[in-house]
Structures
1.
Amino acid sequence: MNCGQSSEESKEVPEPTERVMLVKRLLKVGEDYDVKGVKIESDANTVTVKVEFPEYDPARLRRLAYKLSEENFMNVSELMELYKAGFRSQEELEKLLLRPMRYRRKENIGRAVFD
């Protein structure tokens, strides 16, 4: 750009393909749900997603952590459930409580009634 002259730079951005939009959406699975890991593989005509779930029910553990924080009481089997899942300290329980609340979803509410 010279003094007194203005220049304009234009850049054409291609419209995202269905494939690109799908992969971006799939990448959010790990952020939106309590999963242990998400692996996405892509080749010429396929996209493969592998989702690994934790060995425990995250929604149930969050309910137990809330119960402990609100009532300051928990039976031994509930405490052991948290311990086996790796939530052994107050700091770990606080991290569990900070995770997104998915238990409000319809299927998890029904599950909570039967727990």
2.
Amino acid sequence: MRWLKARNETYLTEEEGYRDYEIRPALELLVQPSEDSDPMKLNFTWEFVDFTQDELLVQLYFEIPPYLSSEADDDFLLVTFWGNSLFTSEEGYPVKQGTTLR
């Protein structure tokens, strides 16, 4: 099972008793719609196609592809990195957790 959005889970810890944790995917993809776009028509799913030491390939599946950037302004894909130990820059530095690219 894949989770593509953050979720909360409660765990019993020895030190604090029950504690809530936010569980996030290593990578979060969202569409930032333009002012003219209908966000409900930009729903999509995605999956990793390939993940190597140097490259990540992601396949996007839009429910209604013709609506993507169909108006005058462009819609944008926002990519947020949550798994900072999994992703590095070209220089080899870890990507800071929560970094979002547009």
3.
Amino acid sequence: MTTLQDQYTETLKQGQESLKQGQEVFAGAVESWTRTVQDAWGQFPVADPREAIDRFYETTGRLLDVQRDLVKGLVHSATAFGDTVRNETRKATEAVQPEV
């Protein structure tokens, strides 16, 4: 039988893992966003204004895609962490409640 302290420690470990995953998702999104901006920056010096407008909106669309992926990753990590905390709290509560 695990103690309440063991369960608390395990919950913290799982929370740290979720945060680490969230940081990795964030770092990947920032890297992708940076690449997209750097790629787009070299595209804007064009003679045709219509082409510049098209490129601007294409770049903006890619930036929004990166932001969407970032938010999805953060929500996934936060949800996983919340589920872990809820489950571990339930287990700890059940462990300390006397059986009726």
4.
Amino acid sequence: MGEDMDWTGQSGAVAWHLIFRHAEDWSETGDMMEAWARAYCGQREDALTARVAELEAALKLIADTDPVDAALDPQRAIRVAAALLSGKERS
């Protein structure tokens, strides 16, 4: 199992259960834990990269739309731009 297992999308709880159940020794336990951690961190990194790109687009949109708002209150600018990107009305 271990390295051959596709850990993508597995929660920590499910991974723990599978590792506890199927690892033959401490070495295999470590290998399986490392494989799960690499998959989990990769997923988180992909999600974070996508979110950063979305926020950068939102900031550019609000800066182009209302540069004064963007300069005075960046947090509000992010919320407004995210709403514009998702098609919601501006608040």
